[in-house]
Queue: 4 jobs
Job 1
Amino acid sequence: MAFFSRSNNILFLALFFLVTCFLTIFLYSGVNHEYLRVQSMTIYACLVVVMQFTLADFIRFLVLSIDKATWPTKQQDNVVDDSSKQHTRLDYLKLRLETLRAQLLITPEHRDERLNLKYQTIGRDLWLYGKYFLLLCALVLVTRNELLYHDYHFKVALMERNQSLTRGINETFVLSDVYTFINSTLVNAFNPNRTEKGLRRWLYGDHTTKLGVVRLRQLRRCQRHIGWKWQVFTTRDYNTGWKLPYSRVPYTDKYWRIYEPWLAYGSHPDIKGTIYIDIQHHGYFQYYPELSGYVTLLARSSNNSRIVLDYLIEKNWLNTNTSMLFMDFTTYNVDADIFTIFTIMVERTPLGSIETKVLVQSVMLLGLHNLSFIRLLITASYVIVFLQFAKSLIGTLWHEPRQFKRVWNIVDVLIIGLNVLILGLFIKKEVLTEALLKKVEGSSTLHFLDYREPARVQNINEILTGCLVCLATLRLWKVMQFASVFKLFTSTLYSAWKALLSTALLIGIVLVGVGIALVIINGNNSIHFSLLPVGVVTAICLSFGFSNQISPKEQFYGGELLGLFFYALQCFVLAKLLINVLVSLIHDYFMAAKAKRDATQKNEIGFPQFLKLEFADLWRFFRRAPCCSKKYRRRKRTVAQNIDRILKANEGYRLKHRYKAFSRATGGPQNYTTLQAADRIKHNEYIRRVDRLFNVAAILQIQMELLEHLLFDDEGNYQDDEDNYTGRNEG
């Protein structure tokens, strides 16, 4: 097997000596380092080893190959290896004896060479893809932080609901209340009296600080019009108080904080900015761009921030043309090492009311330096297994380029590509994080520190990691096709995909129709049916029993009879009738595939039997171990009675196993008395016994020849005690 190959043994032996020497030097050198220093040294050592395997070895072998091709060495004729061993008759007899003993374990079913090669390939793939999948899952688990969930819900609750000293954004009902929310929650909550080394402590925790200042950004309509339509936002520059025409004065740059709220915020991002920053925010009525609008910044101290708010209120910065207001800022939790990016949205509707939304993203932006020893060990193991995985695929495609057309090899290439892309994004996130931390150290008092770019890089990385897990699971599913359960499930899906697709399409059509009808009838009175996508999703949830967030009375605004009709249509026609049809269809195809499998089943060994014979020495070693060996128990019977009882039990087990195999092959137990099938079973058993008897006779013959070779010389004379003793030691 691949696990016991010579290259793997050399690798494990080299790693053992390397780790042993490293630990010995580290423990007995007398030099003590702090934990983070040791962690960094370990990370750099692992990176050097990875670079050695990936880049340095490639360059070294490339140079050696060019050297061999340019200056080939002269071939030496008649080279004799002095260390070669001269094999004797005794060595041949020993080898023959081991061969015959191994043949005792091999039945006629084990002699199918095509099946053995198939199982050998499956075993190698199972070992490679199995350990890769397990280490990938372990890596995903150890890199997740459960504190992010609690941090997210805690911060959302603080911003949405009223607290003892601050106001929630959900309690703002008109546009003028936004100033009160900003003053209460975004200014006073960060008390200047708790300032320490320039970092403002939060009212709800000394461990949380705000980085930079709060940024206010609003999007304004070009002009008011009769009737609501998709709004176009203005990008013109204004004078103070939104006055036109705009005129630039010489001291605009000097007093830029006064004129900045009235100047259009225009940014032309590069390619990476377009991917990471230039997004469209989804509001209740339309989409809002990220890199446009009118921006103003609050100050770091609460007094200066109130001065800015008073100036904005006096000059009427938020008025009837304001369509959307974004409030952005970032906090950092020192204890949990979590960055939290806040985006509070206030959308002004055409009716004059406002709709609010709180977007909170909790991210751990620091990477390897926060990993424990177990996490570092799993990461290093994953890197080694990934290199083995890539080496196997590259070797296959290098020697057989046609294999690239196979679908599963394309999946392997996608897995390698996703790993490289995830690694690149991880490095990109680390670089951005380091740059932002340096900016925090030397930033001025009135800068907005944008942490959204590394956070969105982290989001993309998490999405790609999920895709990688899906591809690895799919690839492992292909390897597991040797098992009858996986093979049966795959054949069922392959044969039933047309029927399942048509039935699912019918269910989808009915669901969309019911959702549209419910939106038309109840959309003006229920938030769950106000929009078409939301109404269709609500109908799906109610059909499948998820009714915690919706009440059935929300469907009765068109009348009780019509509401009862739609309620019965969802709860009985969809949930009971059509879903049961889908399940029954899958069951019928599953039973048909199972009957087809049983009818075409061959008399061949399974994969566990192949592994048991392949690792016979290892199996025998564990059986002989003191903890696994069975002790003899008489149980008030003689030795002859115990032997006879064990033989009868083994014979009964073999008959039962052959009876089940025969029943599957002949269609059921009612055909077991068929004379032809019974004769075939007896004939196969007779051939198996005769074959084993011949093997036992050959083993006895070889043992007699070995005994004769050890006791007598070539002339047939009995050897003396000294020669006999020496011969026995050699044997």
Job 2
Amino acid sequence: MRGAAAECRRLLAQAHACLDDLDERDELEAPWLAGVGGRVHVESGAAAALRDIAVRTAGVPPARLATAAAERALDLLPAQQRPARLLFTLRLADGHACAGEPEAALAIAGPALSEVADIQDSLIRQELNGLRNRLTAKWSHHQGVRDFTDRLRSPAR
């Protein structure tokens, strides 16, 4: 959180290597960590950690790494896991916002707003609030950002 992007990347590489080394015994002992589930878990955490570093440092490289991790998590996630898919979609959009790409962030997050109203998950709300705050801090004059925040305020998204 202090901007230790290199250390974060080192630990993420170590986590990926550990996932590669899991065997059948590990799958029996920790099935949630083996296979696709473990990869989704690591990529989701990577997206959040790297995005947080990008926020703290205003760094584009960690923001780009965050978007790549969020994309990998979304690619691995089964379609029926809607709350997790929404969470990772918002992380992906936030990564684009941190990379200075408001149009990409809005294009990704905008369609997801209709789902947010139906989900009462505090982590999803936190992700959405962070995205909104980052968009409005830099691009409050941008019509797309104003439309996005207006949609957040309206009951029918």
Job 3
Amino acid sequence: MTHLESQICSHLLLAHYGQIVSKVGTHLIRTGSQPLRLIAADTNTPVDQVKKALCVLIHHNFVTYHLHKRGYVEYELHGAHVLRILRYPRYIYSAKTLYGDTGELIVEELLQNGKMTMSAVVKKVVDRLTETMQDNQSVENIEASNTFVRLVETHFLQRCGSVPEPAADDPSRPPPAPTLVLDEKEMYTVPDLSLIGQCRRRRRVSGDSGEPKSKRCKLNPVEQELPHNDGVYWQVNFDRFHQHFRDQAIVAAVGSKLDQTCSEIVRTMLRISEVTTSSTSSHTQPLSSNEIFRAFPTGYNLSKQVLDQYLALLSDDPMEFVSKTGESGGGMYMINLHRALASLACATVESVVQERFGSRSARIFRLLLRKCHLEQKQVEDFAMIPAKEAKDMMYRMLSENIIFLQEIPKTPDHAPSRTFYLYTVNLPATARMILQRCYKTVVNLIDRREHETRENKRLLEKSQRIEAIMASMQATGAVEVQLQEIEEMITAPEQQQLEALKHNVNMLDSSENQVDETIFVLESYIATTRIEKEVPAKR
């Protein structure tokens, strides 16, 4: 993990979980795996507080533990998991887009708490949905349960590992570190909690009747299922959300390059194979044109013949997003996910080059991408740019590590007069460099937001106090004149200052989300290049 990434992790842990958790997490980032006593000694923190901090980090899947060969337990923090906090608003917004307000609240609760049981999630979501609608509580219970089930069925939520129960006749001592076991077949199996709304209503009614608890359990068998179901904990499946973001980016790219119908065809292909395709797979599963036609939305009124023409157009497109395999029966079509991510990363890098160095430099960059290796004279001729300007642009991009210079000597002495100097583009290296600059941008945005909040701390505290006073007076039935007098405690200049602060913070948050979109594309592309290198090595 780079220094910039560790800085972001420290800022995020401090902002969301407090100083002690941030201190422990930052220490684990810098030192790697360490046992509990050494963490407490190095951070000058009491062991009890370190234990609580580690519990928080483990509960949110930021820290994992393993048993050392000498018998003690070591803890290791995963910085990539902490960096996902930047993407939390995007996860929540995607859940709202796909499953409405109920899906948004379910994902938000799980992100805030790390791991929760289904009954606890449903209860919290229902309480938030029915604060002002007590009469529709049973309806909200059913809706929340159904939305939770749909999120699990589409793999946006998954089960957590559990500790296996020891055998009754096993006299051996428990291990120092428990091992979590998870059956892949049960990862997306939901316990039956469809009657949770009726259960809660019956519990309230029976609670006032004075009957013994054993008798109430016999009258209401649903309550007996809840303890068993409450032992299953759930968490957000981040890989599935990343797969959804990747698919959305691919669909948007096809729509901007071709048309809306082509993007809808690609969306249909991705939707068919979204659950069956792994997040690390290079291609989606092969699909016939008949399968795509049956799953295509009916609102487009697209005939089978026109669909075949569109599929042929997509398979022949230079982007190579859609590949065709086999010729019998019309062939099978699949989406080349690695190629799509490479195209998205290339477009991102090209836009950065154009914004930073100008359109002519972007022309040279695209030329080197297409031709791979060119001499300086060839670049000048192909790009149709004067020699002096082309030389200046290439040297600027060379100094910024956008393009690279490769030497090919004719003789072993590497004499300049007998050496070819070829300019080239190393897209993975350039993507890593831009990714680090994106991390630096995120650090600057976080620092600027903290500075804005710190500079206006007194005004913010005053505004919060006035809002609390107004809320309490409204609850007691204060008249409009009294409320207006309290509002006037904030002067006009202070109100303008608050509006300016709110605008600046919103702009910083929006910028952070936009930078995270670029980070996601570059990280996904770098991960695919790493996978492509590992697969031939294993073979």
Job 4
Amino acid sequence: MRMPSVKYQKGDKVMGRWPGSSLYYEVKVLGFDITSQLYTVIYKDGTELELKEQDIKNFAGFQTRSRSRSRSPGRRRSRSRSPARTTRRSSSRTAAAVAAAAGTDSSLSSSQDTRLKDALEVRLGPLQQTMPAENNSNNKHEKKEENNTANKVNEVEAESEKNLGRYNLRRRKDDGGAKPAAVVAEQQEKEAVKEAAPPASTLSTPLDFGGKIGAYFWLLFLPSWVLFLVLQVNLEDPSLFNFPPPLPPLEAFWDVQALGFVILWILFQALLYVLPVGKLSEGMPLRSGERLKYRTNGFFAIVVSAVAVAVAVHQGVDLTYIHSHFLQLAVASLLVSVLLSVYLYVRSHNAAPEQQALGGNSGNVVYDFFKGRELNPRIKDFDLKFFCEMRPGLIGWCLINFALALAEMKLHGLDAPSYSMILVNVFQLLYVVDGLWNEEAILTTMDLMHDGFGFMLAFGDLVWVPFTYTLQAYYLVSHPNSLSPLAVATIVTLKLIGFYIFRKSNSEKNAFRRDPSDPKLSYLKTIPTATGKSLLVSGWWGVVRHPNYLGDLIMALAWSLPCGFSHLLPWYYMIYFIILLVHRDSRDMSDCRRKYGSAWDEYCRTVRYRIIPRVY
């Protein structure tokens, strides 16, 4: 059979039409798909599209016509539209949690389209070929997902699918290698794009979490569910299948002293955060190309917090107050998270378009309040999202667990906590310490890179983590469960296996992401993709697609086993975590298939199982 002719070859420099407009930009041909009859091209800023042949013009002929038009007597060229000028099209986004793909509004008014044509030149500079390699998988859960999901797929909504065909838009990370002259040009480009930027309401990805109606549901359900669990775990028979317990008097929900303790704890952690101790780490490139600086001294913070708690206990402070006022402390934390969310929503209206999160600018007040409109809200150098993500709630989790161990000893007249309580405390402390020791890894997670800071993250950081992840320790205070030495040894072994898989797989991924050409990593096998990234299929990443999820699930099982099998409530974290990771895996599969195309299909054939070998 005669193969169809290919007009443009790989490496050709041509002019590609931007979807939904009549504007052409300099692009480079990466390849041609015979099945879809589409060319894959790449723009100067790393954006990739699949274009039809009629949307591509020969570079030399197009350049001649462009110069001819530019010499027209009626054409007035300001300095900001110099022919030597290079510009680039800004991407409209970064999940998700949590989606990270931006939609380009194809229904811009004619006046906006005119401004866009005036602001953007069709003559772009040469393409940069050096692209970093990237691993393919997300890491763990809402608090410690350590994978690089910076490069997400932008879905281009064309005005007419019939005329424009199917587009597959991708953006890569800025490699930060621009020369001084290019830096000046890039700054001019940003100013031009900013002038032509669409309204903030268009800077939004497809709605997730059930959309606008879902936002109303989650705003009501999440706080109610936390209060239900806190009230249920106090019962003699804390079964999740029972009817909700009768509500206590309203005054039982509120305690001014509890609010004071919550605020004091947050201020104490904020003080530790701003101290000039620890490493100044650089975040991932934002849409503007900027890299923010973060003070990663979380391990220092938990060590100082532990010393402070030890001193307080030695001075006679009764930490069992946390157990007896658990409900009031949860309500106080909820109030703080709501007030913080209101502040974040109000201040987000003064944020520049490039500082806004593409997933939280739908134009609907409730949805945007829930998802968060501003990506990296800061008070000078104090990053509010990064601080809340790893400090008051995560370290508070360990503090609450320790207080519950003291409450168990006090309630049952013990000289030391039970084996079950010790295992839960030690396992979860190890988990938190490991996260803070490797705090820099959170800078590549979906929460930090893609999601805006709104109620979803504020509530999760300040309420959900410290008051639901401690339910196992809280359950053991009133429902002790004795363990034999063999049971203890078995559970410890299970925990160590899970931790090894989790840490080893993340170390493989992080080392590969930092320097794929490192000779020490030459044994790793990869699958190249059209984006210039590579999918890792060696080590633990050749066993399952998410080995870090597998390690997490094994550790979660080890946390729940010390509580026995009398009730389902202490297994709540395990159940919740399975649902969370399966949802993340499903979202990751969809995003990667759009991003990597046939390479992702090859990867799935190579690594068949998602999380659990031979099971799922």
